[in-house]
Amino acid sequence: MASLGKYPAICEGIQDLSDKNKNVRKSALIRLQKDVFDNKEHLKNETKEFLDSNFFSKIVARLGDENERIREISAGFILQLLDDFKDYLLDTFFFNTIQIIFDRFSEGEETEPSEEVRLEMMRIIAAILTDSPNQTKSNRSELFRIIQYGFADKYHEVKILSCECLISMCKVEQSLLKEKWELLVPSISRNIVHQQFKVRGSSVESIGHLVNTVGGLALENTVVLIAQRVFDPNPQVRKKVLKYSYFYKIVPLLITFLEDSITEVKTTAHELWVLGGEKWLQENKMSDKQLKDELDFLTSFPDHYPPNIIRPSLGCRKLVSRTQHMVYPCIRNDLRDWQDETRIKAAQLLYVMIHHAENEVLMHADKVLECITTCLKDENKDVNEYGVLTGKMLGFMIEPNIWTPLVLQSVHESPTAPHVQVICSLVSGSKREALRPCLEDICFSLSASDVCRQQGVEYQTVLVQTALQILRVSKEDCAESSGALFRLLISVIGCAETNNIRLAGQEGMHELSVLCSYQNTHELYKCNMGVLLKELQGTVENWSKTSFDKMIFEALMHESGPAVGYYTDKVVFIMQHASLETWDAETRLNMFILLSMMMLNLKNTFDSQGIFCDYVKGFVDDIILPSLQWRNGRSEMAIRSAATSSLLCVITALIADQDKQGTLDIIVDIAEKAQSRLGGLINDDCEKTRKMALEAVTKMLSYLHLKLANSIFTDKTLLSYISALHGRLENDSFLIMKVSSRCSLALLNYISNLQDVGDCVWIKSKGLLSDLILHMDNKNEEVRREMFTVLQKTPDKLRPLLVETLKRGAEVHCYKKECLNLLSILDVEE
Q: Residue 476 and residue 287: Cα distance in Å, rounded?
């Protein structure tokens, strides 16, 4: 201590470091730190013996002080000493420092509890390894153990510094690491999946240096750890992996980065990958005869290759193809990981693997297809997209006769959207000529009832996209499988849950008709719907409102147009069974709505071939008339209304083609059979039904009074019509009054034209005329105007009664104008 006489403050501080009072020790340590660094330039000029005096040993000893704050200050003090006096410190200083830190990191009573102090101590170790590596020879085992403890430390900053220490140690203690590296792997393994991305990145970097140092077996034990970080969600960690991708076992992992979302990572990966592939090729081409032959002779570019995609070099392709058997099982596992980022990276890797492996993926086709299906089942959009891209890439790389049996078996066992999407993707990448031998099997499988008749927007969308892909890839080759494709597309149209799916199905029908050289889609329907209708005839008895067959039948009727006229017999049979009273109301209702729609365009539907008259009796007798009978319930009311609409459409269509032979007989037959039902329908609870029934009666009477002199209706029926019209004129809306007035006129014309009319019917007819005149005094001007129009057409036989009643009305009515105007018109006509 004598030599420190010129520094009394330092001498006093050194003495106080041994004081029992912690506050004295702490205060002394702070003063010493200030005094030393205030006088550091003078102290450096002192002898080496002075610098190695008791002063340093006492500072180091405070690392083991019982007070946490003193230990922390001491650690910071030592770091400053290492920075400013590193050239003057003796081996004993380093030995004692490392030993005390080792004791504080070791498990036991002296273990350092403070995270901050442990961090400062690890900084001391890092500084020693970086700036004074030659002073660690006598403590190298302790240094190794300290780093090992640091990896296991709970504080993430300590873990990061431990990684930096290992990197430094790799430069100076290679022999020790080659002996004991295995002891570090368990701790690093845990850190490489740490929640802090900096810990993961530092761990990857430390593993890289460790492998560089010890090589061989160390690589085998750590390649999985590095591989895991290929899928790390943080780009900084992924960039760390790129530094070590030139190892033989890790090179295949580099290709994952070729699809990375970060441009910098992607660019760097591409550059390294090109260099790695070229280097591998140069190293192996002379020792591998097959590789040399390919390099010398197989240089032509494939004739069927994905457009706008650069083909990898031979070295890159071969490097992937020779390691692919190890990679696919790992991809399969990662595609089931709970983290989205891991699944995305696995899907990217799968895509790039297929791109590089090309036709050498053939032996692993089943594994690859399983992975693609898993991608397409994933809820993540990015994973899905890579699944589609990979499927298309695989379609370019292998022949359809390889993948067809595998995917068709899967789609039959489990007809789901992902399984169908696999077929769609593969077809989109296939060559037309190669697909031709497999086309029939593919179309037949997709058109199977359990495959093409499924619900779900996603499934139907994928199914119709698959059909469109087949049409666009195979083109005119589809003609030989047109039946199966027609069945597939009409099933999509019939079962479609959205309008977009339906439109896509119709688009497919149009494309198929063009590829089959038909003039229009109607010809396509004409050639193919017969087989399908025959099949539907066999299943109609089992239909319900949710039956796919029912939906397909309805689609055929909507879409086929004139083609349905070639199969009227089959359609009548199906509609007869689908309209039975034992069926559910919704199915029956749908059939009548469909029938009405087609009757309104009879020339372009049922009668396109001019043979509808041969089947109309079956429509009316077996389908329409049984459903006109009154039954209780809202469903039955709707069915009556739909059946009445169908009857009105039949009558309208027949009258529109009245010059056709047999039309009169058909209308007479309908009138005779429907007369009693129509009388009841005029009084139906549903206004829509009443209106259509009145219109049907009006059309029949207007047609028959011109054709027949004798009534086909019984007096009872005529009286029921008159009675019903009385009620409709008195107690209904203007719309019904309007239709009723015109029906009344048709009935009066019909009765007046008969040669033999019962007295009761004639008397009631006069009463009906009086009702019409009475309503010319209605307070509603529209009603008065309507009656005025109708009464102008009163039959001659009733004109005298009309004039007489109008004259009385002109005297007593509140609204005399209409009566006077009509009288003046009648006078002029006379």
A: 49
For the record, the structure tokens of 620 come out as 């009316």
pLDDT at 447: 93
Q: Please give the Cα distance from 806 to 788 (Å, whole number).
A: 11
Task: Tell me if 63 sits within 8 A of 104, measured CB to CB.
Answer: yes
Question: Which residues fall within 8 angstroms of residue 172, CB to CB, at 6 or more apart?
Answer: 129, 133, 134, 136
* Number of Cβ within a 10 Å radius of residue 692: 26
If you average pLDDT over every residue of the chain, what do you get?
Answer: 84
For 38-60, what is each residue's pLDDT tens digit?
Answer: 776 666 666 454 455 567 777 88
| CA separation for the pair 557, 560 (Å, rounded) | 6
| Both structure tokens of 331 | 């991809």
Q: Which whole number is the average pLDDT over 363-370?
A: 94
How confident is the model over 721-732, as pLDDT tens digits?
888 888 888 766
d(CA 383, CA 339): 12
Cα 349 from chain centroid (whole Å): 22
Phi, psi of 338 (to 5 degrees): -80, -20
CA distance 160 to 576: 82
| Residue pair 457/330 in contact by the 8 Å Cβ criterion | no
pLDDT at residue 5 tops 60: no
pLDDT score at 47: 45
For 182-291, where are the E strands, in sequence order? none
Give the angle 401-407-411 at the CA atoms, nearest 5°.
140
* Residue 397 and residue 359 in contact, taking contact as beta carbons nearer than 8 Å: yes
CA-CA distance, 472 to 464, in Å (whole number)?
12
* Closest listed residue to residue 288, CA positions, set 250, 255, 323, 315: 315
Beta carbons of 644 and 690 less than 8 angstroms apart: no
The one-character DSSP state at 659 is T
- Tens of pLDDT, residue by residue over 482-522, are 999 999 999 999 999 999 999 999 999 999 999 999 989 99
The pLDDT tens digits of the residues spanning 674-726 come to: 888 888 888 888 889 889 989 999 998 888 887 877 778 888 888 888 888 88
Helix pair angle (548-560, 568-578), 10° resolution = 140
**Contact assessment for residue 584 and residue 544, using Cβ atoms and an 8 Å cutoff:** yes
Asked if residues 655 and 613 have their Cβ atoms less than 8 Å apart, the reply is no
Instruction: Report the 10 Å Cβ neighbour count for 777.
Output: 17
Measured distance CA(485)–CA(462) in Å, rounded: 15
- What digits encode the pLDDT tens for the residues 371-394? 999 999 999 999 999 999 999 999
412 Cβ neighbours under 8 A, 6+ residues apart: 445, 448, 450, 451
299/72 Cα distance (integer angstroms): 68
DSSP 3-state of 662:
coil
Instruction: Say what the pTM is.
Output: 0.70
